[in-house]
Write a structure and sequence with these properties.
The complex is a heterodimer of chains A (387) and B (263). Chain A is of the alpha/beta class. Chain A is built from 16 helices and eleven strands. An eight-stranded parallel beta barrel of chain A has the order 1-2-3-4-7-8-9-11, surrounded by seven helices. Chain A is globular and about 60 Å long. Chain B has one domain: Rossmann fold. Chain B has an eight-stranded mixed sheet, with helices on both faces. Chain B is globular, with a radius of gyration of 17 Å. The chains are: A alpha/beta (387), B alpha/beta (263). Chains A and B meet through helix 10 and helix 11 of A and helix 6 of B.
């Protein structure tokens, strides 16, 4: 299994009561709550953590993209990737952002990824996402065109990377007389494309058809197993057998000496993430048109937003793994076999967790977990497990 | 109530639902983002004197969602086709909220089939430094409350509750509204450049306490449309035709009546 250090770069000094009072850490949570002195310190702490991940032997580091929120301070992940491109010497550099529809000129994403791919001599993984609903409130982009713009921007970027320029491009949303970006990507034909999603059926089908790596965001492991089985089924329909390398699970791991100690230490930081940083009203999460009416009704009926979650809930449902080295090894192996993935995108810092604690967690994971999974593939058969 | 009919009309391959009742000069009412809904008391009252025509916009309720529907100008051009197809002349065009924006876009294009224009709590332009609620961030209860000045009316709507059988229609209406108004929010920066072309008698009806498009919008429209007259209805929110149906119809009837005398 490949294990990546995945960072959200939360503004961990955010006043949780102020978030509670505002109803969300997103869009309407005033940036008066951001202190540049503290923020600058955090950027350096977090980038240092990414460099440490490289030194400790993590297979990659992952950046993220969200806008106008204390949840994450990476609206322009390419800037931070640029800061890491020369200091992260060995690990892959994945951006699990670039929300294509948010840009009015998606050619700039083709350019940005190509520069990073050259800088790292081919260690870049290019994420393509739509962004969550809140992004459409924050950035003034019409959610009803999200899917159209995503499809068009994807086609444009891949063509810009693979077809010799200049050529003209005329779409509904984007038009260019000259598509001819310099530099071209370092990797051939282009950086690997990864598709993070919350489990949309059409996204899973499309990713499987395109043979793009599918990354499942924050979900109980049983749901993860179902979504990954959908991917394998769609791959089969498309005439090939999906490799476990095409499936990545985004999770959170915290290791301490004993289970009790791990839960006790992780609790305030995980609960800050689940119940404050992530919280938003349904209207913000799902603006009209962001998803089709059927999915909208499903989400509304499930009332997914707003329920407070305890550490015990998210451990029991297999959203996160928290415990002693032995517990974490057992759970990770169990989940790998259940869901059949071969990449773990692991948040080692989360919520309000301070720097020394995050670094200790990363070191423990590197010493106690990584060596046991380096050559481990999913074992057993999965179809039954997923049903 | 047999004072109106409901039918489906095809305009160039797009089927829309149309409610129609009464006889007299034609009044074409263009609804807002909430959809056409049902035949309302103000429509009945107008139907005593007029041929009241209430189409449901493409993309809303029981009407088709055509592939060409992207912008409010698309709807304005569609309703020019509609007027032609139905052979309507001397039309009193009334548009509320989103429908007011459509009506204004239509009127800057072509007034040859119109006798008058009435904009009610209309979107379409932007007025600086006026506080407006973000209807896309309010929860369903707040959304209803923001429409009314008299919160007892909002209570009554809320008590009736969400009718599950209407959930699909509500989602469809909201999705199309978002498509049409999300960005730039509820206006077309180019519209105000051409409002001076409106060369028919124009009435602007606003609720005094409209939270979506406050009465400053009425005064801004009044300055941009030559000879237009603004009427502000007291103790009234965003839906004068519902919240103050009698005052609304009285204003409209006296405006059209005065035109007839002048003619």
């Amino acid at each position: 299994m490949k294990i990546f250090n995945f960072h959200l770069m939360p503004y961990r000094h955010a006043d949780l009561d102020a978030i509670e009072k505002n109803g969300s850490a997103w869009v309407t949570f005033s940036n008066r709550n951001y202190d540049p002195q503290k923020g600058a310190e955090l950027y350096h702490d977090y980038l240092d953590q990414m460099e440490l991940a490289d030194q400790l032997g993590f297979d990659g580091v992952c950046l993220n993209e969200h806008h106008q929120t204390a949840y994450g301070m990476m609206p322009i992940p390419g800037v931070l990737a640029g800061a890491l491109a020369r200091s992260v010497k060995r690990a892959k550099l994945a951006i699990l952002g670039r929300a294509l529809p948010l840009l009015n000129n998606p050619l700039m994403i083709a350019e940005e990824y190509a520069i990073l791919d050259n800088l790292t001599r081919g260690r870049v993984i290019a994420g393509f996402v739509r962004g969550i609903g809140a992004e459409y409130h924050a950035m003034g982009i019409n959610p009803a065109y999200s899917q159209e713009r995503y499809a068009e921007a994807h086609d444009l970027i891949v063509r810009a990377w693979t077809e010799p320029g200049p050529f003209p491009y005329v779409g509904k949303h984007y038009q260019f007389k000259y598509v001819n970006p310099w530099p071209r990507p370092y990797q051939t034909p282009h950086p690997p494309i990864w598709i993070p999603s919350q489990g949309s059926g059409s996204t899973i089908r499309w990713a499987a058809q395109m043979r793009y790596t599918y990354c499942q965001t924050l979900s109980p492991i049983a749901a993860v197993a179902r979504f990954f089985q959908m991917y394998r089924d769609e791959a089969e329909k498309a005439g090939y057998q999906a490799s476990p390398d095409q499936l990545a699970w985004s999770n959170t791991i915290y290791v301490a000496e004993t289970d009790e100690q791990a839960v006790r230490e992780a609790r305030p930081h995980l609960e800050a993430l689940m119940n404050y940083f992530l919280k938003m009203p349904t209207e913000m999460l799902l603006p009209p048109g962001y998803t089709d009416a059927a999915s909208m009704k499903r989400v509304r009926a499930a009332k997914v937003t707003g329920k407070p979650q305890s550490v015990e809930d998210v451990i029991k449902n297999g959203v996160v793994i928290v415990g002693s080295p032995n517990t974490v090894r057992e759970k990770l192996a169990e989940y790998q076999d259940l869901a059949g993935f071969n990449t773990s995108l692991t948040k080692t810092q989360f919520g309000t967790m301070p720097n020394d604690m995050a670094r200790a967690n990363m070191t423990a994971i590197a010493e106690e977990i990584l060596p046991h999974f380096r050559d481990r593939l999913p074992q057993g058969t999965r179809r039954e497990a997923a049903e | 109530m047999a004072d109106h009919s409901v039918s489906t009309i095809s305009i160039r391959d797009c089927r829309i639902r149309v409610m129609r009742g009464g006889s007299g000069g034609p009044v074409l009412f263009l609804h807002g983002g909430g959809g056409a809904g049902s035949w309302l008391p103000f429509m009945s009252r107008l139907a005593a004197t007029f041929d009241v025509i209430v189409p449901e916009h493409p993309g809303f309720g029981g009407s088709d969602t055509p592939p060409w529907l992207d912008t409010v100008p698309d709807l304005a051009n569609f309703y020019l086709d509609f007027l032609e197809e139905l052979g309507l002349d001397g039309v009193h065009l009334v548009g509320q909220s989103l429908g007011g924006w459509v009506a204004a876009e239509l009127a800057v294009r072509n007034t040859s089939r119109l006798a008058s224009l009435t904009l009610v709590a209309a979107a379409g332009i932007h007025v600086k430094d006026v506080a407006q609620v973000d209807t896309f961030l309010s929860n369903p209860e707040q959304h209803v409350r923001d429409l009314f000045h008299d919160q007892k009316l909002a209570d009554a709507v809320l008590v009736r509750g969400q009718r599950p059988e209407l959930e699909d229609v509500a989602l469809k209406n909201r999705m199309t509204t978002a498509k049409l108004v999300w960005q730039p929010r509820s206006h077309d920066p180019h519209l105000q450049k051409w409002l001076h072309r409106i060369d028919i008698p124009t009435l602007l009806i606003w609720g005094e306490h409209d939270r979506l498009f406050p009465k400053d919008y009425a005064f801004a429209y009044q300055q941009m449309i030559p000879g237009s007259k603004a009427v502000i209805i007291p103790d009234c929110g965003h839906l004068p035709q519902v919240e103050k149906a009698d005052a609304f119809t009285a204003e409209l009837e006296s405006f059209i009546g005065a035109m007839r005398i002048a003619a």
